[in-house]
Design a protein that fits this description.
Blueprint (H helix, E strand, L loop, with lengths): L1 H12 L5 E4 L5 E4 L1 H7 L11 H5 L11 E10 L3 E14 L2 E9 L1 H47 L6 H25 L8 E2 H12 L7 E6 L6 E2 L3 H18 L4 E12 L2 E10 L6 H4 L17 H11 L3 E7 L3 E11 L14 E5 L3 H13 L3 E5 L2 H10 L4 E5 L7 H11 L4 E6 L12 E4 L4 H13 L2
Parallel strand pairs: 7-9, 13-14, 13-15, 15-16, 16-17
Antiparallel strand pairs: 1-2, 1-5, 3-4, 4-5, 6-8, 8-12, 9-10, 10-12, 11-12
Helix pairs in contact: 4-5, 4-10, 5-7, 6-7, 7-9
Length: about 475
């Protein structure tokens, strides 16, 4: 029996996993080569730590003839920490009452955590889309009222204040659109003038920055354009500036630099945000773009992740340099374009438009906008009303809300195509279903301005 036990120990000595033997008192009396290597033990002495303390488990409750499986974190060499799954059971060997065999499952747990994070992001994306849709409807209604007020008080002293409120609402529109950009791959590209966005964001952020923090701008004299939507760049810069503010201890400098550079024979736009804050250690810097990773007590771990996703989504790159106690610098490289995507002045033409929208304020806004341009408008608050109109009236254009209470956007498109095959269809939504894009002539993202609505219709009917 003794010889058999020795043979078993010889086999365990060279096992590719850590094996630990313990006596009736829980003292470690044996470990193999792998355990010695993993935990830094020396064969000239036995570790003083008890098996229960090492594994963070109570093996005293282990019934004879049974095994217990559990996992725990254990400090390993060199100076690390790994997660092991342990299987412990009693044995009848000389000086050894039980054995514990370990399996390193650190990578498995990391992958499980990543999968959980991805599931969180997926559910977050669905929630974001729903919230954005509600924001769009609310803002559209408020903007409709403000547009009407502005038209009436252009000579009044309140005009400037009302216009500022309208700009704030438009920024909410931008936020809602960015949330949707984050949850859906982009379908359309746009370009934007960098300096304009830098001024817009810094003017907003300066009210959130302590007075002892200086905000310095280094911007080009000439306009430079990047191939990225305005709302995406706004959110990128906003998140970087908020991150820089949080890295400061109430004083110091935040610097924003924008310039056109040439690399590899191509022009690019470099946007840099740097701060003189506390900086980061290398281990932290490696993880800052991970979703939900944060070092702040009240942080969400979404800000820098959003920056990274938006930059890469539109063909850019982001680099970060940081040193503990010396500050941090984020450099973003974006595709350069020669000119800004501009909105042409809409032209007036005689059209009959079926306008379908279940949100009353948006329906009234659309009707007022289009009638003011001289169009004949056939308003419908739901699918049933739209079908009644289709039976009795002809129209050239249909503006459709994708989400109606009594009929799907897809079904409504099919009905219009079958009855009026020559009509143009403009699909409107806060988050247009990509599977419907090929079924319509154009799409319009909510919330939209009067100019955007008219321009979308004009472009659509002029398209060959």
């Amino acid at each position: 029996m003794i010889d058999a036990n020795k043979e078993i120990l010889k086999i365990l000595d060279i096992a590719p996993v850590p094996v630990i033997g313990w006596d009736v008192k829980g003292s470690i009396v044996y470990y193999n080569l792998r355990a010695a290597s993993d935990f830094g033990w020396n064969y000239t002495y036995l570790p003083e730590v008890k098996i229960n303390d090492l594994l963070n488990v109570d093996l005293d409750i282990l019934p004879p003839g049974e095994a217990i499986i559990h996992s725990s974190k254990v400090k390993t060499l060199p100076g690390g920490e790994r997660i092991f799954e342990w299987t412990s059971f009693f044995v009848n060997m000389e000086h050894i009452s039980g054995l514990t065999i370990g399996k390193d499952i650190t990578e498995v747990r990391i992958m499980q955590k990543r999968m959980e994070d991805l599931e969180k992001l997926a559910s977050t994306g669905m929630l974001v889309t729903q919230i954005s849709h509600e924001i769009n409807n609310i803002v559209m209604g408020v903007m409709a009222s403000f547009q009407s007020i502005i038209e009436k008080v252009k000579t009044d002293e309140l005009y400037e204040e009302i216009s500022e409120v309208k700009k704030t609402l438009e920024r909410m529109v931008s936020l809602a659109r960015t949330l949707i950009l984050f949850t859906r791959k982009p379908r359309n590209r746009a370009s934007v003038e960098i300096t304009k966005i830098v001024y817009d964001v810094t003017n907003f952020v300066k009210h959130l920055i302590p007075t002892n923090v200086k905000l310095a701008l280094e911007l080009p004299e000439n306009k430079i354009f990047a191939d990225i939507p305005e709302e995406a760049l706004y959110q990128i810069l906003l998140n970087l500036l908020i991150n820089a503010r949080d890295a400061m201890n109430g004083y110091g400098m935040i610097r924003v630099v924008a310039k056109k550079e040439e690399t590899g024979g191509k022009h690019i736009v470099r946007l840099e945000v740097s701060d003189s804050g506390e900086g980061m250690e290398e281990e932290i810097m490696k993880r800052i773009f991970e979703p939900f990773f944060t070092t702040k007590l009240d942080g969400t771990g979404i800000g820098l992740f959003t920056v990274h996703e938006l930059v890469t989504m539109f063909g850019g790159k982001i680099k970060v340099k940081s040193k503990k106690g010396k500050g941090t610098s984020f450099r973003i490289y974006l595709p350069y374009t020669r000119e800004e995507t501009r909105m042409a002045e809409p032209t007036t033409s005689s059209l009959s438009i079926l306008f379908i929208e279940d949100e009353e304020s948006i329906l009234k806004l659309g009707e007022r906008i289009l009638e003011k341009k001289g169009y004949r408008v056939l308003p419908a608050e739901n699918g049933k009303k739209a079908m009644e109109i289709m039976k009795n009236f002809k129209f050239n254009v249909a503006v459709i809300d994708q989400t109606l209470p009594d009929i799907s956007g897809r079904k409504l498109i099919e009905l219009i195509r079958s009855k009026y095959p020559g009509s143009k269809i403009l699909l409107s939504s806060g988050d247009v279903d990509p599977t419907l894009v090929t079924s319509v002539d154009a799409t319009l993202q909510k919330p939209y301005t009067p100019a955007e609505l008219i321009l979308s219709i004009e472009k659509m009917i002029d398209r060959k």
